[in-house]
Write the structure tokens for this entry.
Amino acid sequence: MLNGLLSNCIFCRIGNGDVRSDKVYEDEEFFAFKDINPQSPVHVVVIPKKHISDLSVASDGDKVMLGCIQLLIAKIAKQFSELNNGFRVVSNCGYDAGQTVFHMHYHLLGGRIFAWPPG
Ligand code: AMP
Ligand code: ZN
């Protein structure tokens, strides 16, 4: 691992600009981009640039990052008028939850009515 990045991790590579994406937001710590396979009219993936595989391995040292990323999601949501009436934030954690990319991320979804419970 170099500077907290994994060369074989697609989201590390998106975050450092090696792989192209439809960027929605970037700062030193975070990157957000449109999901390549959107599940709703608005579907944005928000990642920390630092590699962490999923929420289950987060530690006390990640408290600030975890708070900041949620506030960032709320800020990004304001960029999309489709989300004015609500949105859903999802972080799939592990195989049973359907996680397919093992770099922790949050899905910001909206622009349609969602069912509950989720599938
Ligand atoms: P998850 O299944 O929760 O791990 O979410 C991974 C998400 O990343 C899926 O919704 C994929 O469609 C999305 N994804 C995978 N590769 C890319 C990519 N290169 N650009 C944008 N989104 C991607
Ligand atoms: Zn990664």
